[in-house]
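Researcher: Please generate the 3D structure of the following complex. Treat every line as part of one assembly.
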Amino acid sequence: MAGRRATNSSSSSSIDSSNSNHPSLSQPNTDLSTDLRLGLSISTFHHHHHSSSYSREQRSDWPPIKPHLRSALAGKGNNLDHLPTFFVKVYMEGIPIGRKLDLFAQDGYDALVRTLGHMFRTTILCPDVDRVHSKDYHVLTYEDKDGDWMMVGDVPWEMFLTTVKRLKITSADIC
Amino acid sequence: MTYFPEEVLEHIFDFLSSHLDRNAVSLVCKSWFRVERWSRRRVFIGNCYAVSPERLIARFPRVRALTLKGKPHFADFNLVPHDWGGFVSPWIEAMTKSYPGLEELRLKRMVVSDDSLELLSRSFPNFKSLVLVSCEGFTTDGLAAIAANCKHLLELDLQENEVDDSRGQWLSCFPDSCTSLVSLNFACLKGEVNLVALERLVARCPNLRSLRLNRSVNLDTLRKILMQAPQLVDLGTGSYVHHPNSEAYVKLINVVKSYKSVRSLSGFLEVAPRCLPSIYPICLNLTSLNLSYAPGIQSTQLIKLIHHCRNLQRLWILDCIGDKGLGVVASSCKELQELRVFPSDPHGVGNAAVTEEGLVAISMGCPKLHSLLYFCQQMTNAALITVAKNCPNFTRFRLCILDPKKPDPVTLQPLDEGFGAIVQSCKGLRRLSLSGLLTDRVFLYIGVYAEQLEMLSVAFAGEGDKGMLYVLNGCKNLRKLEIMDGPFGDVALLMDVGKYETMRSLWMSSCEVTLGGCKALASKMPMINVEIINENDQMEENPDDGMKVEKLYLYRTLDGSRRDAPDFVWTL
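Model: Done. Output below.
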């Protein structure tokens, strides 16, 4: 574990990066800078053993977590939310050119309605609350996997994400 | 004394499972010693160097289940060099000759080679259970031998081992005749497994109760497995990633919804947090949840999940949950007994961290809590005093403040009083880990109050020898003491050398003990192996006795210095 890691670091980092041609060991060398580099690389070999003064960066023995967890956390940055986008088409009634919207960028129905309201410059009503029948207001509908057109907002958001195929903003005077 | 025939004694002794009881029984008379010795089936050896395999076999000739631990605990944190020791091969070689009936082997922090696994698989026809925890030295070839040759295998449990995946297909080596598996855990393996072989294996093992998959097992395979094995009680998922909009995900939701038998859930080694709602329907049945390897789940998502887990007894989680999330745990999980909060950002100054607030909330909401491991940004004395009052039942209390030597941020005082309150209130405390700014005072409290303490871990704490002496003098039941970066030196080490024969081991690294002090100890105590670990290549032939010892590990032993010590370990 620790020994293995230290061996890797001494062979691949300090010595090789500073020596372009010859491995330092092969030539009898009175060049002090090589000796210094060798000295430095050996001390990095042991750096984490001799630092009784605590340093916040990258001690391999602190905090005391097991190697498996340590490497799982190190790889954490790579685990982006897989499939980070989910774009669906959005049409507004009467406008032939549609838009595309990333549903994953919304954290729920409220955000969805607000974003679409900005995108299409209209007010989208909540079907249960606002009972207005007028062409100035719109409601949001979606096509589900069965091909049916449904009102947005009736099912939990996570369930909605599993069945939605596309969105349509229709005039409130129809519904 | 009434005479019982030995068969009767043996029958009676069969009911004794506790080692303490059996040890007591052995002391009664020669006859009882003899009968007990032949009837002992299970042996636990906490330090593999404390006794030799030959001595074990001579003492207990008919053992069927053996547990062995190798490297010291701090090996988990990179403090013990590779090749230090803890080799299992002499044990397996000795047992092939003497324990043909061996059924179970459990190893922790040991070096296990493929050859040993192969030998194991061929030598014990009744072998049933192999559990390897934090071990290393083997590849999937060794696992293939176990799979292929152990005809009555019930359990193969690999926990957090360092395994090299070679190109073979070890899972496929389970023969078609293998239908007995009860428990299979390969979550720590990094490589691919043959998914079809896995599905078939699960389908033909109707007694399978515990299955923990590795990262290579995708969601689709998981769904198929769940459909084949509707009786799993303990499930560790592999990769839990799917597009919520996909057909496969909808199918998974339906399978999981009706999966009522699962009580323990872990894994999520790779997870798309949006898929988490699929497990809400089974959360109410969960008593154990481990999300400590699940990266990238935000606090809000964790909170939503925890809300559903009202029967949780054990929770292992990352500190992304935050203090607010711990508040939700406190209000939702009234049955909680064990909590572990791990650091998601070990080296950063992250926002993702918990503080004393979370712990206080837990202590108020979870009266049954008795086991804690808590990595946090900061802690206050007031909080610890409150926790001690709310939870007097702690048996294990491990606190790790990420910034060592950090004082109470409110009062700027050391945390002596807080930990003092814990040891005073929790009369059953067996294990304690300290952190933060601490003086000798905390050790005084520990020595005085922690009567049941068996294991103490100390880092960056104390002011001088007195601290260590308080502990060594006071804690009568102390078995393991491990200290890193402390001001304790030869005076503390040598004050009461007889104490070390009552303990399993002592570890001291980056302390003030000298070579001379260790030599003195070694000369006084022949039954103690005093080992110095010295990795410094520039060591002279005859180092000065005043030289500070980088790492000291001493342990009691019946069989003298070990013969497998590498060059950098000096036994004095």
